[in-house]
TrEMBL record:
Signal peptide: none
Highest rank taxon of the organism: Bacteria
Matches recorded under InterPro entries: UPF0311
Protein known as: UPF0311 protein XH99_33775
Family the UniProt entry places it in: Belongs to the UPF0311 family.
Organism: Bradyrhizobium nanningense
Pfam family, one: DUF3237
Gene3D superfamilies: 2.40.160.20
């Protein structure tokens, strides 16, 4: 017997609009940053809006590796609220990461930005989100983060 083959299937895209970065400073393990999530949209197999609360809590390590942990929610077009915890990492050439920090455009293909979103909801129609593993491929822009969410089959 062999183990099942891993495959993924694109499901939806989350576009999270972000506010101004708040920096707590060097904490001993890196620079702690908090980036408010102020809205956005969900498009694809699920559609809706990102609710205007939550944040991405980041630690920028000395080698510029960025650990990410975002907590927020979205509401589907049919009224279901889905809580999201999205952990991941962003890494790339230092000069490009510095440009991103300054809000300058960088080709997303040049930055490794991957996440593992987990979803929670009490709405029966969307319980399947809690019964699967998802991975995300993301891109950071000056005013938003765009995450293509894929279901691991």
């Amino acid at each position: 017997m062999t183990t099942p083959t891993l495959e993924t299937k694109y499901v939806f895209t989350i576009t999270a609009k972000i506010g101004d970065v708040v920096t707590a400073g060097e904490t001993g393990i890196g620079v702690r940053r908090i980036i408010p999530i102020i809205g956005g949209e969900v498009e694809g197999a699920i559609s809706g809006k990102v609710l205007p609360f939550g944040a991405d809590f980041q630690t920028i390590r000395p080698n510029e590796l960025i650990d990410l942990e975002a907590k927020y929610a979205f509401e589907t077009d049919d009224g279901a609220v889905v809580y999201v915890e999205n952990k991941g990492m962003r890494f790339g050439p230092v000069e490009l990461l510095q440009k991103l920090k300054r809000g300058e455009p960088v080709d997303p293909k040049l930055i490794y930005f991957r996440t593992v979103p987990k979803f929670e909801t009490g709405h029966e129609k969307y319980r399947w989100l809690m019964e699967h593993i998802f991975v995300g491929s993301a891109a950071r822009h000056a005013d938003r983060v765009v995450i293509d969410v894929h279901q691991v089959m």
